[in-house]
Write a structure and sequence with these properties.
Structural class: mainly beta
Strand order of the largest sheet: 66-72-71-68-69
Helix content: under 10%
Shape: extended
Radius of gyration: 54 Å
Number of helices: 1
Strand content: over 45%
Distance between the termini: 103 Å
Largest sheet: 5 strands, mixed
């Protein structure tokens, strides 16, 4: 049941309704730059090389991709961007097919300044090895240069000038039995064939590195190699000619793999670090510079299966550290060097199976980073990008490697505002505290002991003291324990309550509505759920739930029925359902609905996954499937739905529910134990859907969530628990895109807000910005897409809508603005703003509010007055700017008003006349400021006779101020009488002339009369005397008078065609044979033609098929008809006779057939498709020879014939043959079964006998003989021998049978030296010999360790059984067992609070060693204090040692580095400067690199204009590379300013009144948007004072100065503006 021992974390997040489409969820974890978006040609990246391939100054990477069975292998090129990201650009194919590229390097072999490639390749089929060199062109492209034969099993290569000729050569190492070291000389144009050096040792070579190991003896390049089979490391000393002799050759341990060279202890000599794959360690070989070994040290590699190793100064302290990949534990181990060859281990999770490791500064930060290969086509990047080193993965490791975290919880335990992390560790019976820094980083703080097997952990303020506590389920101890927190990261003595059964999970929530957290515990052995009520930190059993409970694994607490009270969802493993219990709010629950799920549910969680406001549930099963059921809000649920196909998920063991992307839907994260990742399942309107998986560390078992980096998005912490020691906690920061608005979502033009994205690796805003925050001032819907490393996960935020409201405007003001004196006026403002509010003021800005409202009535005015009005939009609140100005002017400027001005007059003429009489009433006039006179000034007076037409009439009024106005109208006399026709012709009809299509037509023109005058014109139709074609014509005449009145006269003309058309060329009758293949014939003829007296006669075929048609057999009549335009017709007819003469055609005649007999017979049933017949008319087909299809044909040849006959008696035939062959082999019966015999005692053989099998055949009598193996009755050796019999029939067909004779060796081996039991203190390695064994048959039985840790390991506390097994070649085995007992040693931790000091610093207390009571020792240490002055400059190791009651001791060390202060001198230059002088660099300080400070000094530049006139002290401070500081001072003077009156610029800055008593107004041509400093100088250039100014104008008061001339200066945007002012009294 151990697999179900998990804890449930309650996550209740209130959701808002969201959209159906959910945004992506992203976690920072995956630093894979090859497979995030496809494999990019990387199939099996095994070997790596680095260099600047394209000449951009940034490191690039090339991989060697091997194991390409059946295909060419390849090299992949990744171009570095200088920020830790890489872009795949190309794959170079390395032939031939089935080749396997291996070791690779980058060097400039042809001395052209561009990197080239050397790669070892092997033909996987033929086994031959080649060394290929490809030339680079400096931009990332490579072409083949030379290719050479390399020794078989070439494993590795190095480069260097091995023969001192200035060219880079190549040396390879072979794993073949001949142990070849091959030298390939670079001759400048290529490489010479290999020169082989054979070392004086045995054992296959594995890896090789180059360096000057014996540099005190010679200057030649040497090589060091590892040899797996010989368990050795060997120095091959270079002779300077490309040959080598054997140097040291030492057995170093089991399975040495990769190695690297460097000075590790600071003595200037080259040392060797070796990855020991067989002992999970790193062995360091120290040398004396002359090729001899001085000592060998062993260090734990940080995991199992160390494979690849590199050296570099990763922590920047000047000495080389070691990085090693541990392929079996998925760990990168960092051995941090103290400078003397002693190392401290750091462990980093590395994703899956780290193999080849490479180091380089890939992100341009002056720190060395790591890239390594992994399985599944991966290249991984680890950035050395934090003050504490590598934090690419946020993995937390424990002080002891046997800690197995089972669950975790996140809270602020030390009160610093940042979330911390606690984990329950079942294997070590404690819980661990990691303190968070608020940005995602964590530091191990302490372990707190607990009782047996703590499985489930929760955090919260359980006792109400304001501090976070820890609540723990201790399963084996059967108790619930509360560890009170003190708010500073410490925990007090626990209080416990007993638990029944086997408790396995813990959930917390306020179950009784009293404000504190209660507890729910499950026990799957007692089939019950227990409710524990919390009162002030004391837990007591409040209820037991057993109805419907069977094998409960965990409980989810949530409100499932909408009553705001907590309910329970219980995961029943035994009955495969989820049981709901409804809460009453007092720790009481009643049984509710049950949801059926799939078999063996492992855990349940809950949340609103579809955004309907109801809580849903989700269940996992320990497989790759989960289920979810949607809640109804009443405590019931829909049927559970299985969600399968969760990519990458293997053995889902934990679920976490939270709104991870802030889209209003709860999401789910699955914990996938088998695939070492977590999967994000997005909530949405349709429920949960799979998004993608994120690597989480090796063997994840539990997920907790919290606000780790304070960005309001829940982050997650994953417990990775593995018994092999690879346990960790991986903190994964949530990189889902969410936008935070710094202000309101709606504001007025001129405003703005800042939109900030949650933190990610990169950002892409919808505005194309790529920063984390953007400032926006325009309306839009803004989104941001955030990306993980290398775009392995992209998340698009929900839109953030920003509305920028326009400023309203006053569109105008209506009303009288010029008025008579001593009167008022009404002014009305207008605006298109929504619900406008108008405000009237007496000034353009500020001023007094006179009135609020649209219409403003002024007071009585006697002088000209201005008013200003502004409008506020009632919807947006925006205010118009600037205000709208209205000027009211006193004066009579209004003209008189004319009243009763007549309208325009229109009258008709008198009957029979061309004129009319018009009369009207004259208008009158009034005036605003007195009387006015009015007179007619244009036109005839009223009562006059007006002729036809329009006449203007005008009256003019004039007031006493000579203002005038006029009134105009028109008098129009209209002629409304139309002309009258006196004669008009009748309609005309006429036939065409003989043999013509036309006729001549004439008539007399009509006449008309009018009251004034009229004219007659023909307006339509042909003229009289025209010759007209057949058809109808309309003729129109129009009479028109001067007033455009009209009358018309209309008649028609018809021309008639009465003659029929004539047909010519009518065809004769025809008789023809049919066309082959048809039952007719295609017949053509020339169609007849037609003519007519009028153009346009047509002829058409009116009976029979058209010419070119297929005519049927028989007689067909053809008829043509001619028709003219007048429908007159003529006809022509003839006949065509077609006769049928063609025979039928047979199709589908089968081919000759040859087939094998039917098994068991001497013949075969044969079938075929019967052929078919076609004919131009009709035909039939029949079989006339041979059996029908489907009958049995005998062995031999049979003829088959078909005959076809058509209606005309024509005949066709089809024939084929059927051949049947006998191909069936004989049947063998009585085959003996496999025979298994035990070896005769004292021998390795036995005698076997059997009865031979017999054979039969379908046709003939076969023969049978034994064709393989000894005959019956022979003696057989141990092992398996195949016996074969072969039967042959008369046709030569054969059959075989095989059985095996196996002789078994059943005697097991015997151990000769099984070790005795061992007792040792904790923390010390345990060593023991591997026992040996003998066997009766197998001379070398295999001895393997099958239980316990290997020799040289550090064993865990308690008793560990170690078992060796001896197995002979037959699989018989016997065991050797002994016990290793480890007594506990104290767990000692010691990390200096500050590990750097300067000489002269005060005493530093040493208090960080735990547990308390230990002893501090080291240079400069006295008691519990460290004195930097006593220790002196240098690095000093401080040791903290603790001895427990068992007499076992342990210690921890840290290094304190004491640095010297710099010696600083300083003479200020310049020593004096004028105030208005240009900025000048400050100098005079030594040593260089310090910081200058003082009045006007910033960034090493003295700017007099921002300083203060006078004498000042400048300080020069130097902080050396060790952060030790010292300072020196010097004085300087800021003095006069040289101003000439020619410098005065008044165009930008004007001053008035000038002169004055010292109060001036300064106006600027362009308003100053920010404060600026105005400096005042006297007439001799001495600075007097400074005044801050801003805006378009500023008042300055310098009245306290003496009378005289002064200059004011303003320096803005690199320009100086000067003006002169005069103070008078």
């Amino acid at each position: 049941m151990k697999r179900f021992l998990r804890i449930y974390l309650l996550v209740t997040i209130l959701l808002a309704t969201g959209s159906i489409s959910a945004q992506n969820i992203c976690f920072r974890a995956n630093n894979d730059f090859t497979s995030a978006n496809g494999t990019n040609g990387v199939v099996n990246p095994r070997f790596l090389a680095k260099g600047d391939i394209n000449g951009d100054g940034k490191l690039d990477i090339i991989t060697s991709n091997g194991n390409q069975t059946g295909n060419p292998s390849s090299l992949s090129i990744f171009i570095g961007q200088g920020n830790g990201l890489f872009t795949y650009i190309d794959t170079i194919t390395i032939g031939p097919n089935s080749s396997n590229t291996q070791a690779i390097t980058l060097q400039d072999f042809n001395a052209d300044g561009k990197l080239d490639i050397a790669v070892v390749k092997r033909n996987s089929l033929g086994g031959t090895f080649r060394l290929a060199v490809l030339q680079g062109n400096g931009v990332g492209d490579f072409t083949p240069w030379v290719e050479m034969t390399a020794p078989n099993f070439t494993n590795d290569l190095v480069t260097g000038d091995f023969d001192a000729d200035g060219m880079i050569d190549i040396v390879t190492i072979s794993g073949a039995s001949s142990n070849n070291i091959s030298f390939f000389k670079n001759n400048g144009a290529g490489f010479n064939a290999q020169v082989i050096s054979n070392p004086t040792f045995l054992g296959a070579g594995y890896n090789i590195k180059v360096g000057q190991v014996d540099h005190l003896t010679d200057s030649h390049l040497d090589v060091v190699i590892t040899r797996v089979s010989g368990s050795r490391v060997t120095l091959m000393r270079g002779n300077g000619t490309g040959s080598f002799t054997t140097g040291f050759n030492v057995v170093i341990g089991t399975d040495p793999r990769d190695l690297d060279l460097g000075d590790l202890n600071g003595d200037g000599n080259m040392d060797v670090a070796v990855a020991m794959n067989g002992s999970d360690s790193v062995h360091v070989v120290f040398t004396n510079g002359m090729g001899a070994i001085t000592s060998i040290s062993r260090y734990y590699s940080g995991g199992r299966g160390p494979t690849s190793i590199v050296m570099f100064d990763y922590d920047g302290d000047g000495d080389k550290d070691i990085a090693v990949s541990n392929v079996l534990d998925h760990v990168i181990g960092l051995l941090i060097n103290d400078g003397s060859g002693n190392f401290t281990l750091q462990r980093h999770a590395s994703f899956i199976d780290p193999s080849e490791i490479l180091t380089g500064n890939f992100d341009s930060d002056l720190k060395e980073d790591i890239v390594f290969t992994g399985n599944s086509r991966r290249l991984m990047y680890m950035g050395n990008n934090s003050p504490n080193g590598f934090l690419s993965y946020n993995n937390l490791y424990y002080p002891t490697i046997n800690t197995q975290p089972n669950s975790s919880s996140i809270a602020d335990f030390n009160g610093d505002g940042n979330t911390d992390l606690v984990t329950a560790n079942s294997s070590s019976n404690n819980f661990s505290l990691f303190l968070g820094n608020g940005s995602g980083g964590y530091t191990f703080s302490s372990n707190t002991s607990a009782s047996a097997m703590p499985l489930a952990i929760q955090s919260g303020d359980f006792n109400g003291d304001g501090f976070k506590d820890v609540l723990l389920v201790e399963s084996s101890a059967q108790q619930l324990s509360l560890f009170p927190g003190d708010g500073s990261g410490n925990f007090g003595f626990p209080t416990s309550v007993g638990l029944p059964g086997t408790p396995i999970s813990l959930s917390v929530g306020d179950l009784d509505n009293d404000g504190d957290l209660d507890a729910v515990v499950t026990s799957n052995t007692s089939n019950a759920v227990y409710i524990y009520q919390n009162i002030a930190g004391v837990f007591s059993l409040a209820g037991t739930l057993s109805s419907g409970v069977n094998g409960p694994n965990n409980v989810s607490i949530n409100n499932f029925n909408g009553d705001a009270l907590p309910d329970l969802a219980i995961c029943n493993n035994g009955t495969s359902n989820v049981q709901i219990y409804t809460g009453t709010g007092s720790c009481n629950f009643t049984s509710g609905s049950s949801i059926v799920v799939s078999a063996g549910p492992r855990m349940v969680t809950s949340g609103d996954f579809n955004g309907d406001g109801n809580k849903d549930i989700s269940v996992c099963y320990g497989s790759s499937t989960i289920s979810y059921a949607n809640g109804t809000g009443t405590g019931t649920f829909s049927a559970a739905v299985n969600l399968t196909g969760i990519t990458g998920a293997g053995q889902i063991v934990w679920l976490l529910s939270a709104d991870l992307n802030a889209d209003g839907f709860d999401d789910v994260v699955t914990c996938n134990n088998a695939s070492s990742d977590v999967s994000a399942l997005k909530g949405g309107g349709l429920g949960l859907s799979f998004q993608q998986a994120f690597y989480s560390g090796y063997k994840p078992v539990h997920i907790a969530q919290g606000l780790v980096n304070n960005d309001l998005l829940p982050d997650i912490a994953i417990c990775n628990s593995d018994a092999t020691g690879a346990s960790s906690v991986n903190v994964m920061l949530n990189r889902s895109a969410v936008i935070t608005n710094s202000g309101a979502g709606s504001f007025c033009i001129g405003g703005g807000v800042t939109l900030t994205s949650t933190q990610a690796y990169s950002y892409q805003w919808s505005t194309v910005a790529t920063t984390q925050s953007i400032n926006v001032t325009t309306s839009n819907s803004y989104t941001v897409t955030t990306s993980n490393y290398n775009s392995s996960c992209n998340s698009i935020s929900q839109p953030e809508v920003v509305t920028v409201n326009p400023l309203p405007t006053v569109s105008g003001v209506t009303g009288t603005t010029t008025i008579c004196g001593s009167s008022s006026t009404s002014l009305t403002a207008n605006s298109s703003a929504s619900s406008p509010v108008f405000e009237w003021y007496d000034a353009v800005s500020g001023g007094t509010l006179l009135f609020t409202g649209a219409t403003f009535v002024t007071p009585v005015l006697g002088v000209n007055t201005s008013y200003w009005v502004q409008v506020t939009d009632g919807s947006s609140g925006c205010v118009s700017s600037p205000r709208f100005q209205v000027d009211v002017v006193i004066g009579d400027v209004l003209p008189p008003t004319i009243n009763n001005c007549p309208s325009n007059i229109t009258i008709n003429v008198g009957a029979g006349q061309c004129s009319a009489t018009a009369s009207w009433t004259a208008p009158s006039a009034t005036d605003n400021c007195g009387s006015a006179t009015i007179n007619q000034t244009i036109g005839l007076p009223s009562g006059s006779v007006f002729p036809v037409g329009t006449h203007n009439i005008q009256y003019t009024a004039v007031d006493g101020s000579s203002n005038s106005s006029s009134c105009s109208f028109t008098v129009t006399v209209v002629d409304n009488e139309a002309p009258v026709f006196t004669t008009c012709p009748s309609n005309i009809s006429q036939n065409v002339a003989p043999a013509s299509c036309n006729a001549l037509v004439t008539w007399s023109a009509p006449t008309a009369s009018d009251n004034c005058f009229a004219t007659v014109t023909q307006t339509s139709g042909p003229a009289s005397g025209s010759t007209l074609a057949v058809g109808n014509y309309s003729v129109v005449y129009t009479a028109t008078d001067a007033a455009s009145n009209t009358s018309t006269c209309t008649f028609t003309i018809t021309i008639v065609d009465n003659l029929s058309p004539t047909i010519t060329g009518c065809p004769s009758n025809q008789t023809l044979s049919n066309t082959p293949g048809t039952c007719g014939r295609v017949v053509t003829w020339t169609a007849p033609t037609a003519t007519d007296n009028c153009a346009g006669a047509t002829i058409t075929q009116t009976a029979g098929p058209a010419s070119g048609s297929t005519l049927p057999i028989g007689v067909t009549t053809i008829t043509y008809t001619a028709t003219d335009g007048a429908s007159n017709t003529s006809t022509c007819s003839f006949t065509i006779t077609v006769n049928d003469t063609q025979a039928p055609v047979i199709a589908g005649c089968p081919s000759n057939q040859t087939q094998s007999n039917t098994p068991g017979t001497c013949g075969r049933v044969v079938s075929w498709t019967v052929p078919t017949v076609t004919d131009n008319c009709s035909a039939t087909i029949t079989q006339t020879a041979g059996p029908s299809p489907g009958n049995t044909f005998p062995v031999g040849v049979t003829n088959v014939t078909y005959t076809a006959t058509d209606a005309a008696g024509n005949v066709s035939t089809c024939s084929f043959t059927v051949t049947i062959n006998d191909t069936q082999g004989p049947t063998i019966t009585g085959t003996p079964s496999n025979i298994t015999l035990s070896a005769t005692t004292g021998t390795c053989s036995a005698t076997a006998t059997w009865t031979p099998p017999t054979a039969t055949d379908n046709c003939t009598v076969p023969t049978i003989v034994q064709t393989s193996g000894p005959p019956s009755g022979s003696s057989f050796n141990a092992g398996t021998t195949p016996i074969v019999y072969t039967a042959t029939d008369g046709a030569g067909n054969t059959s075989t049978v095989t059985f095996n004779v196996t002789v078994v060796d059943a005697a097991p081996p015997t151990f000769t030296n099984c070790p005795s039991n061992i007792t040792i203190c904790q923390g010390n390695p345990v060593t023991f010999p591997t026992p040996t064994a003998t066997d009766g048959c197998d001379p070398s039985p295999t001895v393997t360790q099958i239980a316990g840790l290997p020799s040289g390991s550090v064993f865990p506390l308690g008793n560990t059984t170690v078992t060796f097994r001896a197995t002979d070649a037959s699989g018989n085995f016997t065991n050797c067992t002994f016990t290793v007992t480890v007594n506990s040693s104290p767990t000692v931790s010691f990390v200096l609070a500050d590990d750097n000091a300067c000489v002269g610093d005060p005493l530093m207390s040493l208090t960080t060693g735990t547990p308390f009571g230990g002893i501090y020792s080291g240079t400069g240490v006295s008691g519990s204090a460290f004195n930097p002055a006593t220790a002196g400059v240098g690095a000093h190791t401080i040791t903290y040692t603790v001895t427990n009651g068992n007499g076992c001791s342990a210690f921890a060390t840290d290094v304190m580095t004491v640095f010297a202060n710099p010696t600083v001198t300083f003479t200020m230059s310049p020593a004096s400067i004028c105030y208005n002088a240009a900025p000048v660099s400050v100098s005079g300080g030594s040593p260089a690199g310090g910081t200058y400070t003082g009045s006007g000094i910033a960034a090493g530049v003295l700017t007099p204009t921002i300083g203060i006139v006078g004498t000042h002290t400048a300080t020069y401070t130097v902080t050396n590379s060790n952060n030790c500081s010292a300072s020196a001072t010097s004085t300087y003077t800021i003095g006069c300013v040289d101003i000439d009156e020619q410098d005065i610029r008044s165009t930008f800055m004007s001053v008035y009144p000038n002169p004055s008593n010292g109060n001036f107004m300064v106006e600027f041509a362009v308003p100053l948007n920010s404060p600026a400093m105005l400096n005042v100088f006297n007439a001799v250039g001495q600075w007097v004072t400074s005044i801050e100014v801003e805006g378009a104008q500023s008042a300055i008061n310098i009245s306290t100065l003496e009378r005289g001339i002064y200059f004011i200066t303003l320096d803005i945007e690199g320009m100086r503006y000067v003006n002169k002012v005069i103070i008078e009294r």
